[in-house]
Amino acid sequence: MAVYKVTVATGDMVEAGTNNSISITLVGSYGESRQTTVSFLFLPGKERSLSVHCGKDLGPIVLIRLHKWRLFLEDAWFCKDVRVTAPNGTLYRFPCYQWLEGVTTVEVREGSGKKLVDDKLQIVKEHRRRELAARQEAYRWKNFAQGWPRCLNVDSIFELDSNIQFSRIRANNFTGFLIFQGASHFLSGFLLRRTSWNSLDEMRTIFSRTQGRDIGECL
């Protein structure tokens, strides 16, 4: 019996957690584990640990499969990374950093930065081929107009996978930050000022400088 220690980390964004079922399969050079449930509840910024029991040593772990099942309502999950410790103490890291939506299975390679020539196992070669095909399907280009730069072949950004779209959470935070800072400067500039402005140019200089700095800090 070989026992693997697995730690699954959720991103720290507000909506990164999920109450859907998440399970994992370990794939090694000598075989793969059975599908093992990790948890039915993931909180943002938290980790879940479990033990995966296998009938034999799987050899070097080359990739993992994360399975997401919807129990009642859809609840997307953002996986940060997965760490697997083999019985001999070897630590394997699997950086994920992507959203899992709906009923889906996502394969993640071990994060040691292998090149195409390093792929010896057929299962790893097949994973690279599928990943390339998926990217080619996602990033299709079209001509918007003669002489214009090429653009993505979609009618709306909502047709894109959520991992390609600009994060709605980041967009909301960005907008909220600008509104808060704009209101703060407005109040401090107009309601708390004890003397009159000398000119409109003075107002433009002060507000353009402070707002430019705040936007840079936000980015």
UniProtKB/TrEMBL annotation:
From the UniProt record, which GO molecular function terms apply? iron ion binding; isomerase activity; oxidoreductase activity, acting on single donors with incorporation of molecular oxygen, incorporation of two atoms of oxygen
The protein's annotated pathway: Lipid metabolism
Calcium keyword on record: yes
Q: Which of this chain's residues are annotated to bind Ca(2+)?
A: 17, 75-76
User: Cross-referenced Gene3D superfamilies, in alphabetical order?
Assistant: Lipoxygenase-1, Domain 5 (1.20.245.10), PLAT/LH2 domain (2.60.60.20)
Reading the lineage from the top rank, the first entry is: Eukaryota
Q: Where in the cell is it found?
A: Cytoplasm
Looking at the UniProt record, the site noted as Essential for stabilizing binding to COTL1 sits at 99
Q: Name one GO biological process term.
A: lipid oxidation
Q: Which SMART domains match?
A: LH2
Record has 4Fe-4S as a keyword? no
- Ranges for the PLAT domain? 2-114
Q: Where is the Lipoxygenase domain?
A: 114-219
- One GO term describing the cellular component: cytoplasm
Signal peptide annotation: none
List the InterPro entries.
LipOase (IPR000907), LipOase_C (IPR013819), LipOase_C_sf (IPR036226), LipOase_mml (IPR001885), PLAT/LH2_dom (IPR001024), PLAT/LH2_dom_sf (IPR036392), PLAT_LOX_verte (IPR042062)
Listed A to Z, the keywords are: Calcium, Cytoplasm, Dioxygenase, Isomerase, Lipid metabolism, Metal-binding, Oxidoreductase
Q: Which residues cross the membrane?
A: none
Task: Name residues in a coiled coil.
Answer: none
Q: Which PANTHER family match?
A: LIPOXYGENASE
Q: Which family does it belong to?
A: Belongs to the lipoxygenase family.
The protein, known as: LOXE3 isomerase
Q: Which organism is it from?
A: Illadopsis cleaveri
Task: Provide the organism lineage as a comma list.
Answer: Eukaryota, Metazoa, Chordata, Craniata, Vertebrata
